UniProtKB/TrEMBL annotation:
PANTHER family noted in UniProt: BLR1237 PROTEIN (PTHR42928:SF5), TRICARBOXYLATE-BINDING PROTEIN (PTHR42928)
Naturally occurring in which organism (per UniProt): Cupriavidus alkaliphilus
Family matches, as Gene3D superfamilies: Bordetella uptake gene, domain 1, Periplasmic binding protein-like II
This protein's name: Tripartite-type tricarboxylate transporter receptor subunit TctC
Alphabetized UniProt keyword annotations: Receptor, Signal
Signal sequence coordinates: 1-28
Protein family (similarity comment): Belongs to the UPF0065 (bug) family.
Pfam families, per database record: TctC
Length: 328
């Protein structure tokens, strides 16, 4: 029997084992999905991201052939739920319903438990929506002009509920800088808690997106002072943009929603996910409901979503530096 060095035998065994692992990995990717899938929402239930995720639950489940479950993991400006997905297996069974926090957090926090650039792979984008400034009925504020004319609150500073380190926090700071209107930012753990205090008159204002604002505006329980973006929404034709009211520089301060997976997701699984998302977004019911929520669909490939997020990170980094809002 010929002599074979132990090192050579080990290398051969390792090579065979590696080939087997690769084959098993490829089979798993081709076989995807074969068990329930989780969409992690890094916010409390009832918020806009939660609403969007639950709107996608049924059509995604129908197209993927497996149950899709929404899992709310709020906290720390959305970084807790985001970190959970970043550290999950890159097999397609755990994905993130991401929003602006994905691009604002790197500018706000000195350290994050994940790398916002390399820890994720884009599946696709759902759409974007402007940020709306809502007022308590007790304030009788209906426009920027009303805010400028309210000398009592204007001198003290209008109270605004914000999630510390959240996109709404940055949008509020940008609004203050561009409008020159004095604000007092009151920290909240979630938008729903801030909304409760706006309704009760404990605070004056709240920045949120149309998905969260819709029930309050349509019921008359809150009033929309204005919104970011460049044009009015068909779902809210009476809500003027800030630019229309003389406040510039808020045209790009919008919310967006996208599905992200952990980095390393196999291309086969990524393509199945992207196809399922595109199919879900094309259904008449989803299209109608997104429109009702003021969310405009965006047509982007996963690669374009990656570039879009990179540009958004740079934009918010500039805003954070200009407003001095860096958190520890």
């Amino acid at each position: 029997m010929p002599f074979r060095p132990a090192g050579r035998i080990f290398c051969q065994i390792f090579a065979l084992a590696s080939l087997g692992a690769v084959a098993a990995y490829a089979h798993a990717a081709t076989d995807f999905p074969k068990k329930p899938i989780t969409i992690v929402v890094p916010y409390t239930a009832g918020g806009s991201s939660d609403v969007v995720a639950r709107l996608l639950e049924k059509p995604l489940s129908e197209h993927l052939g497996q149950p899709v479950i929404v899992d709310n993991r709020p906290g720390a400006g959305a970084t807790i739920g985001t970190a959970l997905v970043a550290k999950s297996s890159a097999d397609g069974y755990t994905v993130l319903l991401a929003d602006n926090a994905q691009t604002t957090a790197p500018a706000m926090y000195a350290r994050l438990p994940y790398d916002p650039v390399t820890s994720f792979k884009a599946i696709g984008i759902v759409g974007s929506a402007p940020a709306m400034l809502l007022s308590s009925p007790q304030t009788k504020l209906r426009s920027i002009r009303d805010m400028l004319n309210d000398r009592v609150r204007g001198n003290e500073g209008f109270t605004v509920g914000v999630g510390s380190g959240s996109p709404s926090h940055l949008i509020t700071a940008l609004f203050q800088a561009q409008s020159k209107i004095k604000l007092q930012m009151i920290p909240y753990k979630g938008a729903s808690q801030a909304a409760t205090d706006v309704l009760g008159g404990q605070i004056d204002l709240l920045f949120t997106n149309p998905a969260s604002a819709a029930p309050y505006i349509k019921s008359g329980r809150m009033h929309a002072i204005g919104m970011t973006g460049t044009h009015r929404l068909s779902a809210f034709p009476d809500v003027a943009t800030f630019r229309e009211q003389g406040v510039q520089g808020l045209e790009k301060a919008n919310y967006w929603f996208a599905l992200l997976a952990p980095a390393g997701l196999p291309n086969e699984v990524s393509q199945k996910w992207s196809g399922a998302l595109a199919a879900a977004l094309s259904t008449p019911e989803v299209t109608r409901k997104l429109g009702d929520l003021g969310i405009s669909k965006i047509d982007m490939t996963p690669a374009q979503v990656q570039r879009f997020m990179a540009e958004d990170r740079q934009n918010w980094a500039h805003i954070v530096n200009a407003t001095g809002m860096k958190l520890q």
